[in-house]
Amino acid sequence: MRIDLNVIQEWIAPASRVLDLGCGDGELLEQLQKNKDVVGYGLEIDAQQIHRCVQRGVNVVEQNLDAGLTNFADASFDTVVMTQALQTLRHPHLVVGEMLRVGRDCIITFPNFGQWKARWHLAFSGRMPVSDLLPFEWYDTPNIHFCTFRDFEVLCGQNDWTILHRQVVSESKLGVVFKDFLPNLFGETAIYHLTR
């Protein structure tokens, strides 16, 4: 399981109602159902991922997040989760606002484009970075909004969203040592827990 998904499990209360946006193959919801006894639903647009969710026994609805969450009433869920999808949305700030409308709180993870490897790659190769976490070339990437930890915290401040928890994770040796001292430079993935 990805390291950010392990952190998220710690932040979700047992027996809560969870909506997972861009739930992928349903791995997180499956684990939350087993370990936390949550009632969970996933939203996903990819047909193959939806099929995998069904195989796992995860409730999933086919839905494009860029179309909004108008089919959900206010405060329908305790927690709304979105992992590694923020950068793919046409209007990410509107989707986060919707997450905080339909949920009491939300948890978001995204890749940090301020990380030193991305800076180094762009500065010295003159090309957009490609990594294990972001394995796409510039012409076929689904990632259309690149942001850093600092960018995201500015967005939170502009919208009066309260940060309950924040954590950065890294799988590289250098990142593991320095991520807590210089998170914008050494953190690979940001994990934020927000409320209004």
TrEMBL record:
It comes from the Bacteria. InterPro entries: Methionine_synth_MetW (IPR010743), SAM-dependent_MTases_sf (IPR029063). This is Methionine biosynthesis protein MetW. It comes from Microbulbifer variabilis. The gene is metW.
